[in-house]
Specification:
By secondary structure, this protein is an alpha/beta fold. The protein has helices spanning about 10-15, 30-45, 65-70, 80-95, 105-115, 135-145, 160-170, 190-200; strands at about 55, 75-80, 100-105, 120-125, 145-155, 200-210, 215-220, 225-235. α2 packs across α3 and α5 (about 105-115) packs parallel to α6 (about 135-145).
Length: about 240
């Protein structure tokens, strides 16, 4: 199943147009390349990935998927952007990475096909790009095994995040292409926490991602007012 009602065609078009630039560290995807070591280290604080079966939801060109595969995990990356997936597949092939696979499908359809088949599910920088983020959270929970972990990252919805994530990042610093984000799709931590509880996911940690435009350095902080990451665990039966 390649289609889903929980998709914004304009969002797919944005990333499809840039697909060929996913692995250029000086392109529009530079922020993802720079934060990727931080994302991987944060995930492995909760669970070493070696030997685990991992699902990367909204994998794009495979930046995080490949990094997790290099730790020794068996990784499946899924996305609905065909061109991005082709880039991801080609990059893995060129790098000789055999323990990462990619599929064009929605998380909802995969949840029907492979319930409780993954030790870890990641959904990073994706929730703010879909019409119904609660559906994604619920599907991620259905895909992970009891006791398994699900990791989310997204953008808070408040005046500060509008100033930093849209005005600053897209119009002043040009870290991202203009129009990358839509403020009304940003998600408050309380809203994400409610969706997690409704999906049998216990929130274990929330962290912020902070950026200094002068030093051009990112770091993980305790301030979730703009970008934030949430670690959850599915209840064990």
């Amino acid at each position: 199943m390649k289609t889903s009602t929980n998709v914004d065609p304009s969002e797919l078009a944005k990333f499809s147009e840039l697909a060929h630039r996913w692995w250029d560290p000086n392109s529009e995807f530079r922020p993802l390349h720079e934060i990727n070591p931080l994302r991987l280290a944060w995930i492995e604080e909760f669970t070493p990935l070696t030997g685990l079966r991992v699902l990367d939801v909204g994998c794009g060109g495979g930046i995080l998927s490949e990094a997790m595969a290099r730790t020794g995990a068996e990784v499946l990356g899924i996305d609905l952007a065909t061109k991005s997936l082709r880039v991801a597949q080609l990059h893995a092939l060129e790098g000789g990475i055999k323990n990462v696979q990619y599929r064009e499908c929605s998380v909802e359809s995969l949840a029907h096909e492979l319930p409780e088949q993954f030790d870890v599910v990641t959904c990073m920088e994706m929730l703010e790009h879909v019409p119904d983020f609660e559906s994604v959270v619920s599907s991620c929970s259905r895909l992970v095994k009891p006791g398994g972990r699900v990791f989310f990252s997204t953008l808070n919805r408040n005046p500060k995040s509008f100033l930093f994530a849209i005005v600053g990042a897209e119009y002043v610093l040009n870290l991202l292409p203009r129009g990358t984000h839509e403020y009304q799709k940003f998600i408050k931590p309380s809203e994400l926490a409610h969706a997690c509880r409704a999906s049998d996911l216990e929130q274990q940690s929330i962290r912020g991602l902070t950026y200094n435009p002068i030093t051009r350095r990112y770091w993980v902080s305790k301030d979730p007012s703009v970008n934030y990451w949430v670690a959850t665990q599915k209840s064990a039966r």
